[in-house]
Amino acid sequence: MSDSSDPNRLTGDDLATWAALATVLEWLPPALDAPLIRSFDLTHFEYGILFALADAPDRALRMTVLADYANSSLSRLSRAVSRIEGRGWVQRTRDPVDGRSTLTTLTDAGLKMLDTATPVQALSVKELVLDPLTSAQRGQLGEISRRIQRAIRKQEGWQPPQPSASDND
What we know:
60% of the residues lie in helices and 8% in strands. It is mostly helical. It is globular, with a radius of gyration of 19 Å. The relative contact order is 0.10.
């Protein structure tokens, strides 16, 4: 095929590692979509929008912020928000602070859908990603993922809220 001694080509273990990760990157999104679509006609991307809004102050975010969280173009995000807005799960309004911006707000119906869909999504994540790993491998996956995130962007990626002391009671 080509010269495997070329330093600009992946070979051996590096190629095998990349092939495994590239396959996961391709296979995981549709595998996460399938149970949500089957049960709720909701994609994993749309679930992520609901999830991000539920975690936001007043359950609202500017579309630009939401697009950044989702690593999405505004046009892709707008199409997804239109779809879930049509189902009454979110509402878009002009930002009262900056009239040039659009706020997307999670409705009570959207919060209810998120609460209903979360066990299905969590089960998928556990079955597909977490359960096949040992506890040590889960920690390694977290560290590896954070290192790759930092190589892509210097800014922090989404972090789950830290449990408060009262959550541990």
